[in-house]
Amino acid sequence: MFLSVFDMFKIGIGPSSSHTMGPMIAAGMFLEKLRASPFAPAGLQARFHGSLAFTGVGHATDRATLLGLAGFEPEKYNATEGMAALADIKINKVVQPHGLPPMRLDPTQDIMFDYGPALPGHANGMILMAIDAQNDVILQETYYSIGGGFVVTAGEMDEGGGTGDLAPYPHEFETAAELLKICGTQNESIANIKRQNELSRLSAYNLDKGLQRIWSVMTACIDRGLVTDGVLPGGLNVKRRAKGINDALIAERGLNITAPHTINDWMSVYAMAVNEENAAGGQVVTAPTNGAAGVVPATIRYWQDHVPGAQASAIPDFLLTAAAIGGLIKFNASISGAECGCQAEVGSAAAMAAAGLCAVLGGTPLQVENAAEIALEHHLGMTCDPVKGLVQVPCIERNGLGCIKAVSAASLAMRGDGTHLVPLDACIETMRQTGIDMHERYKETSLGGLAVNVPNC
After folding, report:
1. Start-to-end C-alpha separation, the chain
2. Could you tell me which CATH number the domain at 176-200+202-453 has?
3. Chain-centre distance of CA 386, in angstroms?
4. Residue (of 72, 75, 69, 67) closest to 17 by Cα position
5. What whole-number distance in Å separates Cα of residue 166 and Cα of residue 22?
6. What DSSP string describes 162-218?
7. Which of 59, 290, 349, 433 is the 20 to 30 A CA-CA neighbour of 232?
8. Contact 141, 33 (CB under 8 A)
9. CB of 422 within 8 A of CB of 373?
10. Which CATH class for the 17-158 domain?
11. Is residue 285 helix, strand or coil?
């Protein structure tokens, strides 16, 4: 199954790819279904289940769905226009997306949170309904937001997942072992194998332009986070720290007072800048999710700004390598915190970042695979327990530590020849099994861990 680099890296909005972007995308899919139907809907309703219900308010699931049903899309989202639209819906209780009649949508009555058992397909389930003037349901669809902005219908889930392109592509692989074999046979890097697969779907111009766009949004997000202070929304009163840390690091330059380990603070501040922007609902890139969006860009920024010899022209190879590893994890396990805990989010992001960094440092495919395995292995068992359902604590700092682990993993892999005891495939399978065994209260429901042991206000 082909997963594009643009499947793994999607431009969207915070705070969550599964709880914010996914529901907005699902709403857009439902509007398309309505436009193609013969029905004349008078109103719309949405009901959230599982993790979408338990942490939906903190993740802005309700607001994202309202905006999606009003016609907004994550990649094109304008915050000013979105806030105005939400205010209008609250007052007038009507939406009129393009190509459809005005439809009643009362946020207090038509947006529902079901705290009972999750729907059978996935922990992140939602049901969208169109109703007639008599409040009878005339069209209904169940959607699952399965992490990283991927959304499938219940029917697609029953057929095996529904994500990815099933058409043939030049180099087909479903495991790291198969990918390494192809690299060896072709005498090519992972990035070049991934590039050849991408070119079976789009032109070289569009691939390069798209990769440039991804990095442009990533680095702009870092830059915004480094200069913005204040308090993050949601009620926890978490203060933004990236600006203060960045200012202090800049002030210390040239004073001969900087300890060697201060480089870790640079890595962390880049990641924290991204995730503070994400927590504030800003524009981010899923990498592979919003909750883990800081790890990959922070690792690239560290490499670009602090590693001698780093070249911007190699950033596409970093992203392509990272996407290849992320695709393996998604296909064989999960990138969803609601499914496998934070090992599937920050752990996957660290593996992707470690692989990308190792590649641009000159690592062989064997060393790249080793780097990804080290990074993922040392996130195994990590729970997803956001306080108050917000992507703030422990998520923001966790991205900083994920970046540090990614850099350390790449460095360790570069010190060896690529041979190691635990294959990446075994580590991915272990993560999948650990996720199955993990109690649901540790999987993005905010019913366990720090979420219940730290005051919510």
Report:
1. 45
2. 1.10.4100
3. 15
4. 75
5. 22
6. --SB-S--SS--SSHHHHHHHHHHHT--HHHHHHHHHTTTS-HHHHHHHHHHHHHHH
7. 349
8. yes
9. yes
10. alpha beta
11. strand
Domain ranges in the chain are 17-158, 176-200+202-453
User: Cβ neighbours of residue 264 under 8 Å, at least 6 residues apart?
Assistant: 404
pLDDT in tens, the chain (457 residues): 799 999 999 999 999 999 999 999 999 999 999 999 999 899 999 999 999 999 999 999 999 999 999 999 999 999 899 999 999 999 999 999 999 999 999 999 999 999 999 999 999 999 999 999 999 999 999 999 999 999 999 999 988 766 777 899 999 999 999 999 999 999 999 999 999 999 999 999 999 999 999 999 999 999 999 999 999 999 999 999 999 999 999 999 878 778 999 999 999 999 999 999 999 999 999 999 999 999 999 999 999 999 999 999 999 999 999 999 999 999 999 999 999 999 999 999 999 999 999 999 999 999 999 999 999 999 999 999 999 999 999 999 999 999 999 999 999 999 999 999 999 999 999 999 999 999 999 999 999 999 999 976 5
